[in-house]
Design brief:
This protein is α+β, with helices and mostly antiparallel strands. About 10% of the residues lie in helices and about 25% in strands.
């Protein structure tokens, strides 16, 4: 597992629901949904595009590949 608390991003082996204990970021109250991306969406990230993800019909999270990262 890899956790970058400053950026709020973690690489984990499984998704936890809110009633299954603390997440890698501590206790959370949301439903802990799993969002699966397709190979087409992954390719779009590698092409420099972003993914917009709807979160519970209330928030939008944008995902972008960090090509400058050494990880």
């Amino acid at each position: 597992m890899s956790v970058d608390r400053e950026r709020g991003v973690a690489i984990v082996n499984e998704a936890l629901g809110p009633l299954e204990g603390d997440t890698v970021f501590g206790q959370r109250w949301g439903n802990g949904d799993l969002i699966r991306i397709t190979t087409k969406e992954l390719s779009a990230l590698h092409e420099g595009k972003m993914l917009a993800v709807d979160v519970e019909g209330e928030f939008v999270v944008y995902l972008q590949l960090d090509e400058e990262s050494e990880d």
